[in-house]
């Protein structure tokens, strides 16, 4: 049997690229630069499978490729809001993602951000590196205690639940969750979590709010100025989900006027472009989308895409089919 042709849009861990090359006719984007919608369209005409990442905009323009040779998009990552679902369906594409394997590492980054912003770690490091540290004093960079506080989690899927485990069992935090569908009582019981009916119920009860919902049009600006106003003064907002979930202009205002205690972001609207106003906010921690950036998670994500491809090309329904 002729091996199917597979185009990988960014460089992947070497071990996964090597395994892909064994099973498929592999084509790599050796320059590792994000492709334009036009270039994506070209790949769809030429390869049986395309393996994109969050840096590829697979919008209606990029997916306007009638008669495309591609039959499957094996997305490298759990979030797939960069893929226009209607256009993918129109082209008859199967789309898969990589859940589970990055949940722990992404929750670790959310917890890292939570601790950093509460304990002013970013401010401290900036001060020290700038040569501005004059020495210990009782009133220096006083932060907020984390242990025993209430964490509100928006989106109680796999990553949200991992975050709850860390916060509840590691830091004795009380967990309040909002989720579109009802969470099974035994799942809530694992972290003694309480599910509330609306985001507006969750915000005023939480000392920390962590976002773990999908991105995309339906959740765009879920956190807007009205909802930032519902947060407790002094509360902290953490985002490891997708940048568009927060109205960044409203967040900049809330941080500048100290309506909330601070925020910590791993994802940005239109990343890697950063809204200039964010850079002016001292009570903000920012990381460059590191949620799944461990050797273990990135290799496991790649092998999970491989499993999905193998299923697809052997006529089985891929386990992580989302479209
Ligand atoms: C990935 C992520 O690295 O999986 C996701 O949804 O946000 C990241 O951790 C990225 O999406 C790669 O495509």
Biggest sheet layout: 7 strands, parallel
Considering the protein shown, what is the CATH homologous superfamily of the largest domain? NAD(P)-binding Rossmann-like Domain
Mean pLDDT: 97
Helix percentage: 25-40%
The number of distinct β-strands equals: 12
Which CATH architecture of the largest domain is right?
3-Layer(aba) Sandwich
Q: What's the CATH class of the largest domain, please?
A: Alpha Beta
Say which molecules are bound, naming each kind only once: 2-keto-D-gluconic acid
The global form is: globular
Low-confidence stretches: none
Radius of gyration: 21 Å
Order of helices and strands: EHEHEEHEHHEHEHEHEHEHEHEH
Textual characterization of the structure:
The strands form 2 sheets. Strands 8-7-6-9-10-11-12 form a 7-stranded parallel sheet. It has a 5-stranded parallel sheet with strand order 2-1-3-4-5, sandwiched between helices. The protein contains 12 helices and 12 strands. The two termini are 27 Å apart. It has 2 domains: 5-101 and 295-313, NAD(P)-binding Rossmann-like Domain (Rossmann fold), CATH 3.40.50.720; 103-286, Rossmann fold (3-Layer(aba) Sandwich). It has helices at residues 14-23, 37-46, 85-90, 103-118, 121-129, 158-171, 185-189, 199-202, 225-230, 248-256, 276-279, 295-313, and strands spanning 5-8, 25-28, 49-51, 72-74, 94-96, 150-154, 174-178, 194-196, 208-211, 236-239, 262-265, 284-286. α11 (276-279) links the parallel β11 (262-265) and β12 (284-286). Residues 53-54, 76-79, 102, 291-292 line the site of 2-keto-D-gluconic acid.
């Amino acid at each position: 049997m002729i091996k199917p042709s597979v185009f990988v849009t960014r460089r992947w861990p070497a071990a996964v690229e090597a395994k892909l090359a064994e099973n498929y006719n592999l084509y790599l984007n050796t320059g590792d630069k994000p492709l334009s919608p036009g270039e994506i369209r070209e790949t769809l005409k030429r390869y049986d499978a395309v393996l994109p990442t969050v840096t590829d905009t697979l919008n209606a323009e990029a997916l306007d490729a009638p008669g495309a040779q591609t039959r499957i998009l094996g997305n490298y990552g759990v979030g797939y809001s960069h893929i226009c679902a209607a256009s993918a369906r129109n082209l008859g594409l199967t789309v898969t993602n990589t859940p589970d394997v990055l949940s722990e590492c992404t929750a670790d980054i959310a917890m890292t951000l939570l601790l950093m912003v509460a304990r002013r770690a970013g401010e401290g490091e900036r001060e020290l590196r700038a040569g501005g540290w004059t020495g210990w004093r009782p009133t220096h960079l006083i932060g907020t205690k984390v242990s025993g506080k209430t964490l509100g989690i928006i989106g109680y899927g796999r990553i949200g639940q991992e975050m709850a485990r860390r916060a509840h069992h590691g830091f004795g935090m009380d967990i309040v969750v909002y989720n579109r569908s009802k969470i099974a009582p035994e799942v809530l019981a694992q972290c003694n979590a309480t599910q509330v009916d609306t985001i507006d119920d969750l915000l005023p009860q939480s000392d920390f709010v962590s976002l773990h919902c999908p991105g995309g049009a339906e959740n765009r600006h879920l956190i807007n100025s009205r909802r930032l106003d519902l947060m407790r003064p002094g509360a902290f907002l953490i985002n490891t989900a997708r940048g568009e979930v927060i109205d960044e202009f409203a967040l900049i205002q809330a941080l500048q006027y100290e309506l909330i205690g601070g925020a910590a972001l791993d994802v940005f609207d239109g990343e890697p472009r950063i809204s200039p106003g964010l850079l002016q906010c001292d009570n903000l921690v920012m990381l460059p989308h590191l949620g799944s950036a461990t050797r273990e998670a990135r290799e496991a994500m790649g092998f999970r895409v491989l499993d999905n491809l193998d299923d697809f090309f052997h006529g089985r329904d891929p386990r992580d089919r989302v479209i």
